[in-house]
Amino acid sequence: MEPNKVPHKFKVMDSSFTSDMVVSAYTIYLPIVIVLTLFVARILFKNGKVFMMDIFRGRKEIALATNKLFEVGFYLMNIGFALLIMKIHVYAINTQEAFEILTAKIGGFSIYLGIMLFLNLYLFFRGKRKAKEQLMKEKLFKQPIPNQG
Amino acid sequence: MTYNLLAYIIFLTLIFFIVFSLGWIFYQNGEVYLKMLLADDHQLVKAINKILLLGYYLLNLGYTAVSLIFWDRISSLPEMIEKITLYSAYIILGLALMHYFNMTWLFLYAKYRKRKIQFNES
User: Which of B27, B32, B53, B78 has the highest Cβ tally under 10 A?
Assistant: First the structure.
């Protein structure tokens, strides 16, 4: 095994050390983050349909299409980020260290996912507010005004 | 079989699967937007949608294939997993970036077009 290129401040890479622990950490990490992302996105966008119907004023076709596209964007961005931060930089670890690294990574990722969730929710509420303002304006002037946003 | 070859096979299968399934979703959901922008000319919408899908496949599969030349030699299993996930992450984040760029462009264009219609009417 080649010594790892990335220096670590605590450990010197021992080339004779087995790296089984890292492989099992990866096999635990990957399903967890992917299933977590799918689960969060499923729930967020199942409930996002209501907002989209409001934003596009009941034009069902375009509301559902937009919802689907945002859902796909959410998957791509978050699974991409999860894969990006997966690498464990030191191979010589025991079970305890593997556990600690794994919890730190998964915990960090779920905090990131929570922030993304609330960002999306904010965007939904903003869209809904804009649609409502538009509706109020039209009521005021008694004629349809083309939607601005 | 070397680790590199195995990694290439897994990587290409994974990315091709992702690109094809995404392309299909975009193809199906994008038609509404094209109808909105092109004033219900159905044949033109279908033609443009198909050409866009083809362009999307060519671009993404092309740069996936080209990205293989940047891989180093892989000498162990964990390294292989890392490399596959890292390069998949780059490709997936690239797709996400392009997707959001396209959505932004679409919304801005729709906004601009509505303003123009409003201006012409008044």
Answer: B78
